[in-house]
Amino acid sequence: MKKCFTLLAMLGATAAQAHVTLDQATAYAGTYQKLAFRVGHGCDGKATTGLTVTLPEGASHAKPMPKAGWKISVTDSGALREISWKGGSLPDAYFDEFVVQVKLSPEPGKLYFRVVQECGKVSVAWDEIAGEKMKAPAPVLELLPAPAGTPHHAH
Ligand SMILES: [Cu+2]
Asked: Is residue 41 scored above 80 in pLDDT?
């Protein structure tokens, strides 16, 4: 994580792209969307070997996209749903995306996705949802009111 803090100091807000982030910042409420979780670096130089995303209530009907080299598992335990990718190895010098399709809540607002990044025995929780100068912010998606005529079944 040290490397990340240095980048934050140097680049300010743009360094957020180097964390674990969502490919898109906004989406229309009530639609099906492809969400790509982008892993910008490993854990203090170590390769990423696992990623677990907790879906908020506002993201349902989750369908992960198969990913070569990674084993996907889905946990559905009532309100909280977890999707994890394990068994691969993403070197610190590269980035990759982990993709899932979800149906978004019809209510506009922000959805936070808590993510745990694993690098062998080390892990980083990307779960901060408020405050300035967050060290490990959770990926966030802002749901915008859908314009009239937006198809609700894009799948
Ligand atoms: Cu980062």
From this structure: yes
